[in-house]
Write a structure and sequence with these properties.
The protein is mainly alpha-helical. The protein has helices at about 1-20, 25-35, 45-50, 55-60, 65-75, 80-110, 115-160, 165-175, 185-195, 200-210, 215-225, 230-285. The chain has two domains: about 1-110, no CATH class; about 145-255, Receptor-associated Protein (Up-down Bundle). It is found in: Cell membrane.
């Protein structure tokens, strides 16, 4: 009981102390960089803890991969350090919430140390799970882009073959899907805005490829940049050949997603089978 009470005071007290130290200095920072990060109510305390212990500097080598994923996933641009800091703050917030919650439950249950142990285990696993979830989001984003890219490339080829320039074709195809919330069209909309503002087409396409962070997009932009000056049949032919390869990759992703969906249904089906078996067998067992 005493150990649980001490752990409770330390964990809850730590959160309160950093809340007091943070004050309102992080309010604007959180508002500008909140994106889809969670547990924002604990963000001031977490950000204060990060700054006080200089975690970003101390862990710079270990969070380099995280920073790269955040940059691609959130299209952060110049905000990469801020978004990375918010991601680390989210992890710290969940850790503090687990430790404080586990210790409170331990005290309420008469000093049961199992709650404390469970909270510590969660606090250790949370960073691993959070980074794993970030990787899963990256994989899904990559698959979504590859799934949509062959259709986009086919439209560009048709418009170029009909006599439009590649810039006009990209702008037209993007504007048709401007309202669609899709990672590919989000990046394309940004690229089209830069093209309309008079930026270099080569520079815009290269920047678009970097922001997507997908090899297939890099191949697409390279094909466009190598052939767009020639235009006409040469570019349309190259895009059609690329589109055929992309359609095959789209089919492979569709098969993979179908297999994953089927595997996720196995466990519920097993539970249903066991439930039906119990319902059918119970009357017979009662007879014996």
């Amino acid at each position: 009981m005493v150990i649980s009470a001490i752990f409770c005071c330390l964990s809850v007290g730590l959160v309160l102390i950093f809340f007091i130290l943070a004050g309102s200095q992080y309010k604007l920072f959180i508002e500008e960089n909140k994106a889809d990060f969670q547990f924002l109510f604990l963000a001031p305390a977490s950000l204060c803890l990060i700054d006080r212990f200089k975690l970003m500097e101390r862990l710079s080598s270990k969070i380099a991969n995280v920073q790269q994923r955040v940059a691609i996933l959130y299209s952060a641009g110049k905000k990469v350090p801020q978004y990375t800091k918010m991601f680390i703050a989210q992890i710290v917030s969940v850790i503090m919430l687990c430790l404080a919650g586990g210790s409170i439950f331990a005290v309420l249950n008469g000093g049961d140390k199992r709650f404390v142990v469970f909270a510590i285990v969660l606090a250790i696993l949370i960073p691993i799970v959070s980074i794993k979830k970030l990787e899963e989001k990256m994989d899904k984003r990559k698959q979504d882009i590859i799934m949509e890219l062959p259709e986009f490339a086919s439209k560009i080829a048709l418009l170029v073959n009909a006599g439009e320039t590649v810039q006009q074709a990209i702008v037209r195809c993007t504007m048709m899907k401007a309202d669609v919330k899709h990672p590919l069209y989000t990046e394309l909309t940004d690229a089209v805005t830069k093209i309309k503002n008079g930026d270099s087409f080569n520079g815009v396409m290269e920047d678009f490829s970097k922001r997507c962070g997908v090899q297939e997009v890099s191949v697409f932009t390279t094909t466009v940049l190598l052939n767009y000056k020639r235009g006409g049949n040469q570019l349309a032919l190259s895009l059609r050949e690329l589109s055929r390869d992309l359609w095959e990759k789209r089919k492979a992703i569709s098969r993979k997603r179908g297999e994953e969906a089927s595997s996720k249904l196995i466990f519920p089906m097993v539970l249903i089978f066991i439930a039906v078996l119990i319902i059918v067998a119970y009357p017979a067992l009662r007879i014996f």
